[in-house]
Design goal:
CATH architecture: 3-Layer(aba) Sandwich
Number of strands: 11
CATH superfamily: Class I glutamine amidotransferase (GATase) domain
GO molecular function: transferase activity
Number of helices: 9
Organism: Halomonas icarae
CATH topology: Rossmann fold
Structural class: alpha/beta
Order of helices and strands: EHHEEHEHEEHEEEEEHHHH
Keywords: Glutamine amidotransferase, Transferase
CATH class: Alpha Beta
Distance between the termini: 16 Å
InterPro entries: ChyE-like, Class_I_gatase-like, GATASE
Protein name: Glutamine amidotransferase
Strand order of the largest sheet: 2-1-3-4-11-10-9-6-7
C-alpha cells in the first residue's frame, strides 16, 4: 500500500463540513471506497514533513488566494519543488493546482473574466489524450468548479492536458508523475450546490444566475475517478520499484 499524504490548505464552509465533511474528508472517502488510505497534513498549522517515505501527495483546495502569498503557502513552494526533484507523485486540486503552478514558475491570480462556478465541461488537449492519468477519459467530460483565481500562465515546460472556454489551463502536468487540475474531483453534486448557494450574490454581480447553475449541476464520475486513478498509478509504480529491489 503506498503512503499517500493529503496536504490540507484550507477549510470548507461550516455547513459543508457538517453535512458532507471537509476537503480532506471528501478525498479520504473517495479513496477508501477503492481500498486506499491517506494521512492528512495541515500546511497552515503543522511543520513541513520529511519527503522521504512519501509516495504520493494530494494538495487540496482552499478559500485562500495564492496571490495573497500567506507565509504557510509560500513555505510550501520550495517543499513542492523538492518533492518534484525527488519525483514524488503529486496531484493538486484548485488551490493546489494554482499553488503548484506558481511554485514551478507560472502565474496564478484572479481571472479577468471573474468566477467560474458550477458543473461545466472541459476538453482534453492532444497531450491530454496521450497522458497516462487523464488519457483514458472521454474527449469532453463534466467537472465541478468553484474558483476566482486561475493559472494565468503555465510554467515553462508544463503540459496542458485539459481546457475550456473560461480557462486555458484546466489540467496541467509538470513532470512524469506531477499533475494538477483546476476542478474539484472530490466534490459531489450536493457539495457543488452548497457552494453555489453561498455564491448567489457574487455570481449575480457578474451576471450569472446561481439558481440556474444549481439546476445544471450533475454527477462528474470521470473527474471523480482521477483521485483513485492517481492512487493506483502511485501504487503500481511503488510495487514495480519494490519488485526490482
Amino acid at each position: 500500500m503506498p503512503r499517500l499524504l493529503i496536504v490540507k490548505t484550507g477549510d470548507s464552509f461550516p455547513e459543508v463540513i457538517e453535512h458532507h465533511g471537509d476537503f480532506e474528508a471528501l478525498f479520504q472517502r473517495t479513496l477508501a471506497h477503492a481500498g486506499f488510505e491517506a494521512e492528512v497534513f495541515d500546511a497552515r498549522h503543522e511543520p513541513l514533513p520529511e519527503l522521504s517515505g512519501i509516495d504520493g501527495l494530494y494538495i487540496t483546495g482552499s478559500h485562500a488566494m495564492v496571490s495573497d502569498a500567506e507565509p504557510w503557502s509560500e513555505a510550501l513552494k520550495p517543499w513542492l519543488l523538492a518533492a518534484r526533484e525527488r519525483n514524488v507523485a503529486m496531484f493538486g486540486v484548485c488551490y493546489g493546482h494554482q499553488l503548484m503552478a506558481a511554485a514551478f514558475g507560472g502565474v496564478s491570480d484572479y481571472h479577468p473574466a471573474g468566477r467560474e462556478s458550477g458543473t461545466h465541461e472541459v476538453t482534453l488537449t492532444e497531450s491530454g489524450h496521450e497522458d497516462p492519468l487523464l488519457g483514458t477519459l472521454p474527449a469532453h467530460f463534466p467537472v465541478q468548479l468553484t474558483h476566482a483565481q486561475s493559472v494565468l500562465e503555465a510554467p515553462s515546460g508544463a503540459v496542458v492536458l485539459a481546457r475550456n472556454a473560461h480557462d486555458a489551463n484546466q489540467a496541467l502536468r509538470y513532470g512524469p508523475r506531477q499533475w494538477s487540475v483546476q476542478f474539484h474531483p472530490e466534490f459531489t453534486p450536493e457539495v457543488m450546490r452548497a457552494y453555489l448557494a453561498r455564491q448567489v450574490d457574487k455570481l449575480r454581480d457578474q451576471g450569472e444566475d446561481a439558481n440556474a447553475l444549481m439546476r445544471g449541476v450533475t454527477a462528474t464520475p470521470e473527474a471523480s475517478s482521477l483521485l483513485v486513478r492517481f492512487a493506483r498509478t502511485v501504487a503500481k509504480r511503488e510495487g514495480a520499484v519494490a519488485e526490482t529491489n
